[in-house]
Design goal:
Number of strands: 15
CATH class of the largest domain: Alpha Beta
Number of helices: 12
Shape: globular
Bound molecules: pyridoxal-5'-phosphate
Order of helices and strands: HHEHEHEHEHEEEEEHHHEEEHEEHEH
CATH superfamily of the largest domain: Type I PLP-dependent aspartate aminotransferase-like (Major domain)
Number of domains: 2
Strand order of the largest sheet: 1-9-8-5-4-2-3-14
CATH architecture of the largest domain: 3-Layer(aba) Sandwich
Length: about 375
């Protein structure tokens, strides 16, 4: 059997070990240290955000963002239905209610018209959403201009889930820097990794300082242990920040490689009209974290997303359906949903993520392309 080809495995550069070793040599294993300081500084410099806080995961960053916005029981949070569950789980951690919004085909992300309809309807029913979580899936930007304008018009703060979109941009600005709070993930499958980790970004110093306080058990200034509110243990370790520091040095190269994977697949399947790819409308620039395919079953001669996925599995290649919408998940199906056009459901039914790691060899890429080409009889 051939070696397994994974969807998006970690890919280390060259200097991660040097920074990790420095943490060991100086005994700054925890709780703070030079790696954390430099990693946070690199994130600010790269994204253009004023302030950054390194955290133990992207999920923790989303949770803290909601805590900072004072989200609690009775509050409603606008979320895209088409996303990874970690976008939404923190809404329930806070005892609040998610209100799901469909995607548009132009970006695959939150549809501005459906979002406006949702806001108006919630307002008619008595309350405006307390926050809006905008997600940039697979590295593709949402309609940032329309969604931030809409949120500003109704006075709703935006949390930007850029977990998969480090290095992507909208116009001249990097994703993660548009929301009142932005979040990143450095999970093992993301474009760069700290093995596990995340970050919170903001232009408001006060918010990031408050997040730092909350992420380290909310200790009041006192010689004894004094606490006036609930805190969390969400800090990233200085050891793992060393991995992140090294990964930041290769981020541009990783974006180039992810985009090269995409270009390879697009060329390889150019003669198969039943296949189309994830969008990248102007003025967005995608890091192409994962290359995503849509199968048009009206002209695929019986090939479906699922027959393709099984053909990959038979060749020991990992490929995954696009995200299953939240309003179709058992844990979330009872919450409000605005999506008359059912775009997310369609994307889920027809969409497949291809192996997109930056350490794929030319032979690996040929193996992946061969599965699709054979499925279409080429
Ligand atoms: C990966 C991811 C997260 C969660 O990040 P973790 O670091 O794994 O907690 C949240 N939202 C989206 C869109 C993601 O892709």
């Amino acid at each position: 059997m051939n070696d397994r080809i994974w969807l998006s495995p970690p890919h280390l550069g060259g200097s991660e070990m040097k920074y990790v070793q420095e943490a060991f040599d100086t005994n700054w294993i925890a709780p703070v240290g030079e790696n954390l300081r430099c990693f946070e500084q690199a994130l600010c410099q790269y994204t253009g955000a004023g302030y950054a806080l390194a955290l133990s995961s992207g999920t923790a960053a989303i949770h803290l963002a909601l805590v900072l916005l004072d989200v609690g029981p009775g509050d409603e949070i606008l979320c895209p239905t088409f996303t990874f569950v970690a976008t939404v789980n923190p809404v329930l951690y806070q005892g609040a209610t998610p209100v799901f919004v469909d995607s548009d085909y132009a970006t695959w992300n939150m549809c501005p018209e459906a979002a406006e309809e949702a806001i108006r309807d919630r307002q008619r029913r008595g309350r405006l959403p307390k926050a809006m979580v905008v997600v940039h899936l697979y590295g593709q930007a949402a309609r940032v201009d329309r969604l931030t304008e809409l949120a500003a018009r109704y006075g709703i703060p935006v949390v930007e889930d850029a977990a998969a979109a480090l290095g992507s941009s909208y116009g001249s600005r990097k994703l993660g820097s548009f929301g009142r709070l932005g979040i990143l993930s450095f999970n093992g499958n993301k474009i760069i990794t700290t093995s596990g980790g995340g970050a919170l970004l903001s232009n408001e110093r006060e918010l990031i300082e408050q997040a730092r306080f909350l992420s380290t058990q909310a200790r009041d200034p006192a010689p004894h242990f004094q606490h006036s509110r609930v805190g969390y243990n969400y800090a990233l370790s200085n050891v793992l920040a060393g991995i992140g520091r090294g990964q930041m040095e290769v981020l541009e190269e990783r974006i180039r490689q992810r985009r090269a994977n995409f270009a390879f697949y697009r060329a390889a399947f150019a003669a198969i009209p039943a296949l189309s790819f994830g969008p990248e409308p102007a003025p967005s620039f995608s890091n192409r974290w994962l290359t995503c395919l849509l199968v048009d079953e009206a002209r695929s001669g019986g090939v479906t997303r699922e027959t393709l996925r099984l053909a990959f599995e038979a060749q020991n290649i990992e490929a995954r359906p696009l995200w299953k919408p939240m309003h179709q998940q058992p844990v979330y199906e009872r919450y409000p949903y605005y999506g008359p056009d059912r775009v997310a459901e369609d994307l889920f039914t027809r969409g497949l993520c291809l192996p997109s790691g930056t350490n794929l060899s030319p032979a690996d890429l040929d193996r992946v392309a061969g599965v699709v080409q054979r499925a279409f009889g080429r």
